[in-house]
Amino acid sequence: MVYSTPALDTLDKPKRSRGIEEQTPGRSRRPQMPRAPKQRPLGGRRNLLKLLRGNTLASAALVLLGFIAICSLAAPLVSSQSRDKIDLTKQYQSPSIEHPFGTDDLGRDLFVRVMYGGRVSLGVGVMAMLIALFLGLVAGGLAGYYGGIVDTLIMRFVDLMLAVPVFFVILFLSSVIVPSILMICLIIGMTQWMEVARLVRGVVLSTRELEFIDAARALGVTDNMILVRHLFPHTTAPVLVAGTLGLAQAIIIESALSFLGFGIQPPTPSWGAMLQNAQGYLSTAPWIAIFPGLMICLTVISCYVLGDFLTNALNPIRRKIP
Amino acid sequence: MLRYFGRRLLEIIPLAIVVSLVCFALMQATPGGPAAMLSQNPMVKPEDIARIRANFGIDQPVMVQYFMWLKRVVLHGDFGSSYVTGEPVLHMIGRRLPATLELMGSAFLLAFLLGMTGGIISALKRFTKIDSFLSIMAVVAISIPVFWLGLMAMMLFTVKWRLLPSAGMFSLGVPFSTTDHLMHLILPSLVLSLLFMASWSRYMRASLSEVLAMDYICVAKAKGASRTSVVFKHAIRNASIPVLTIIALNLPALFTGSIIVETLFSWPGMGRLFYEGLLRQDYTRLMGIIFIASILIAFLNLLADLAYGVLDPRVRYAR
To answer: Does residue A287 form part of some domain?
Structure first.
């Protein structure tokens, strides 16, 4: 998994005007107390929203992502045309008012198909990402908390999974199993959890030595409870970031799989599946290739920008992972 | 050093065994194998199927099959024969491997050279226009799926501007010439390399910025070392160590990219061989390719580990 883009440096200049304003006299009777510097990076939702408002790029990404998601969800409401309606009198029409994205080789309206395709692509992406997060949390939590032989076994397995060209295995599996949408989510999720496991293990390793864990243990809280109730909340920040980037990754993998013909099967559209035959129409009907791919790009860029924003917003001090 | 190398080489063996077990488990999960395909055919008699199953050894219990396979691989380097063409898998891979290595090698070089250069420029000119430009380009490049990038590159360079060929390794019907071959190489290798170029340049930028803020750089400057010497002799060497880790982690992704790029550009390499194997359900071939690719990746990772020692003399290959 390529978790790239370390920091766009969009947040390098924090705004500090608020502190000065509060020191103007006469506004309150209370003695002026020096404000404690904000220690907790995840200081509630409001804080995050405030940071988001100050960051145009990240806000734009969130709006774009939301827009794409809503359009996909509302596809049946927005369009009167059917998704798979074949109209051979309207093959290869270039983009027009009637067909904003043009029509494909079977005369189907590409705009409608792109919206419906978004449902599948985003749906598979979210589902696969959730599966990967779940597996990563469980594996990383167990490895970090119990240590010893459990840790060694799980982490060696992670190393092994990272060393195998996983996409070959994904392709193999989806060519063998009849690929239903759920199966594709499972296959992608089961091959993308390793990075999350590493992150979670790192956080759990460093947190489990803290005193409040000892306290919980002294109170007789069971191991599983400590892991779920006291340790997992500490992994929120890295897991949130990994989730955003994992969503982008899952969307890319699904589209690549469908593009090669081993993912979503026709006539169900997904952005990748719509590109499957596009290579043959590059000279006659390039819009068949352009629009679905553009949607993948926009979605993935939004995810990366948001992931970047979250990385900066949630860990001002980069976490060191052992 | 030599002992370390030997030990690491030995460590590949358990990896190979586990990978082969996984491959074998995958193959067992497949419905039927060659016999299943044949049984669809009314012309093939049941006794023929039984004979073919016996020939391929797939009438034996699973564990026996596995050890037979392992024995053949270890003693004779024989990965079995293709279910489809009957040709030994190793031959098939051997014929296709040079093309893949050429494509991946040139993509790697491009990504490495341009990515590093971009990262260094970004880090030296931090927060300037050129840095923001490079950063935005990098984020965009990382977000473009490789197959769509390939499609768009074909559309522009081949269909529209007719500048570069986009299929195969050579022009057909023309005597071989190196320029012709290189022209065919440009598009696929660029398309394959862009993701890595962008990603590595981001890491290089982050890493080099961090190193440039360190005390020893200040000392070097104070002692009167020139800017070039500070950057190239003192900073880059240390900055490239974390980037090397990322490069090693990205190696499997390079193989992944090669499947897609080779399929798209009809490049006759291992990735395309794999893709054809998928279409024809040639399981021995698929298994052989996954196995060889895993070993190659393990070997390249070993090379990356050795490169740590070259970059950082403190790294000792002890024990």
So the answer is: yes
Is B301 near chain A, with CB under 8 Å?
Answer: yes
**Residue A152 domain boundaries:** 123-322
What number does CATH give the domain B97-311? 1.10.3720.10
Contacts of B209 (CB under 8 A, 6+ apart): B123, B126
Nearest residue in chain A measured CA to CA from B14? A160
Query: What is the tally of structural domains in chain A?
Result: 1
Neighbours of B168 (CB within 10 A): 12
Dist CA A158 CA A92 (whole Å) = 47
CB contact (8 A) between residue A282 and residue B151? yes
The residue among B139, B160, B282 with the most chain A CBs within 10 A of its CB, best to mutate, is: B139
* Global ipTM: 0.86
What are the angstrom distances between the C-alpha of A30 and each of A16, A36, A268, B190?
A: 22, 16, 65, 65
pLDDT by position in tens, chain A (length 322): 444 444 444 334 344 444 444 444 444 455 555 555 544 544 555 677 777 887 888 999 999 999 999 999 988 887 767 777 777 887 888 888 878 888 888 888 888 889 999 999 999 999 999 999 999 999 999 999 998 999 999 998 898 888 778 888 889 888 887 778 999 999 999 989 999 999 999 999 988 888 999 999 999 999 989 998 999 988 888 899 899 999 999 999 999 999 998 988 888 889 999 998 888 888 888 888 999 999 999 999 999 999 988 888 876 554 333 3
- Inside any domain, residue A245: yes
